[in-house]
Amino acid sequence: MKKELALVGLAATALAIPGKALAQQKPNIVLILADDLGWGDISCHNGYVQTPNIDRIFNQGIEMDRFYAAPVSSPTRCGVMTGRYPSRFGIRETVIPPWRDYGLPLEEETMADMLGRNGYSNRAAIGKWHLGHSRKAYYPLNRGFTHFHGALNGAFEYFDHTRDGQLDWHDDWESCYEEGYTTDLIADEAAKCIREYSKEGPFFVYTCFNAPHSPYEAPEDEIASLIPLDEFAKLKKKDRNGWTYRAMVSRMDKGVGRILEAIEESGQADNTIVLFMSDNGGVPDFEPYCNNRPFRGSKFNEFEGGVRVCAAIYWKDGFRNGRKIDQVTGFVDLLPTLKDIVGDKSAPKNPYDGISVYSVLSGKKKLIKRDFYLGVGAAVNHKYKYIIAGRNEGMKLKEDMFNDIVANPYEENGKARAINDKARKHLRQVALDGDAIVPYQKEIPYGFGKDGFVPPFEWKPVKD
Q1: N or C of the chain: less Cβ packing under 10 Å?
Q2: What is the dihedral sign for C-alpha 36, 40, 45, 46?
Q3: Measured between alpha carbons, how far is 264 from 17 in angstroms, rounded to an integer?
């Protein structure tokens, strides 16, 4: 029998959820981010690894087939949290590295801040933060969250939870010495919070796996479930890493399953929004293990494979589920959409670049026409996509590319010729306008400040 997300009906909810929670109207929100997951890495996209739990969200919810993110991690997280293009923050082309004394600007209101103003008393950030670590002001607990359990940096170790030799695992303000594989710990903490918070009114659980980002590490039992260990041991390093990557995806899917189970057990599955997405496309040069097929490109570039990411959302009480939509939407739309859903009519502290797509998700509208700036010389809308050559040197374009992205989603070719000259000029200007955004602080190259950097003990902030 096919397992449904919403296993618990209204009668069971009334029995299980007393008092304050019974009267709640606003939905719970569980936002799940994968890290460097390729479009073709999940089984509902014909991936090698079976991901039945992630597939449930895609099959039973709404698959957002045209969902865009930034091509790298920290910029996507900035946009998710603020509804604004990361170009505004000097965090556009690279991530926040360990040696950077910088974070999401304090002038910005976060998703957690907005939800806190609207009755969400419990707001947890679990897993990878990657929005600033050098000062207490950048910590999740000072950015609208009431609980933090996870790592401040990216690319931390899965088993000993270190980055650059220092423990980077925290429970609220304190270092956390729990043992275990981070994917399991993140999933279990998210499930624990869901079970606890469901008794106290609407909640927000922001769950950020570091899987399947490098370093490539997975429990032996997960690897053995995919390939005999004696065969695995004989492989070349790239192939061992590849099978480990597959095991990391499989383990993350099991973690997603435990999160969905906790939602079901809470008795509030019908009134819980569950969103799953990747922060960018899969890493380059790692096929056939990580793949963005059928799209061109990968993490670090604005081809579809780098920015068009796996994404699906489910809310039984509020959406028309069980379908796929081609609405152009993405990371900066999440905050405006949630703000619309919870009924917050106030003007945002800083104007959003994103829009609410609630009307499309609910089925009231079929499509909202809009242009979407992808970063570094690229923009897209429902019909066309424009990329300015030379802005992202890693893409190695010799001339501008203008494509009918519906007819040619794989970007197999395309020049800035007059498919539709008016649309071409318009979308090029959208890309230019996006590139012209003046940030709070000039973007700093990734490696600047690395030489001589010594990480603080257990990544304690050295400044307030």
Answers
A1: N
A2: negative
A3: 12
* Residue 274, both tokens: 């569950």
Q: How far does the chain reach from its first CA to its final CA, in angstroms? A: 54
Hey, what are 202's tokens?
């609407």
Q: Angle at which helices 237-265 and 52-60 pack, to 10 degrees?
A: 60
Tell which phi-psi region holds residue 23, choosing left (phi > 0), alpha (psi between -120 and 50) or beta: alpha
Report the half-sphere exposure of 210 (CA within 13 A, side-chain side): 32
Q: Give CA angle at 411 (60, 328), nearest 5°.
A: 40
CA 14, distance to chain mean position in Å, is: 33
Gap between the Cα atoms of 307 and 374, Å rounded: 8
Q: What is the DSSP string of 31-85?
A: EEEESS--GGGSGGGT-SS--HHHHHHHHHSEEETTEE--SSHHHHHHHHHHSS-
| pTM for the whole structure | 0.94
> Could you identify the residue written with the tokens 């032996």?
220
CB neighbour list of residue 266: distance below 8 Å, 6 or more residues apart? 8, 16, 17, 28, 194, 195, 198, 272
Please tell me the distance from the alpha carbon of residue 17 to that of residue 29, in angstroms, as a whole number: 17
| Nearest CA among 61, 122, 81 for reference residue 89 | 81
Model confidence over 219-233: pLDDT tens digits? Answer: 999 999 999 999 999
Mean pLDDT of 334-360: 97
Q: Per residue, what are the HEC states of 387-411?
A: ECCCCCHHHCCCCCEEEECCCCCCC
Burial class (CB in 10 A: 0-12, 13-18, 19+), 336: buried
pLDDT attached to residue 26: 96
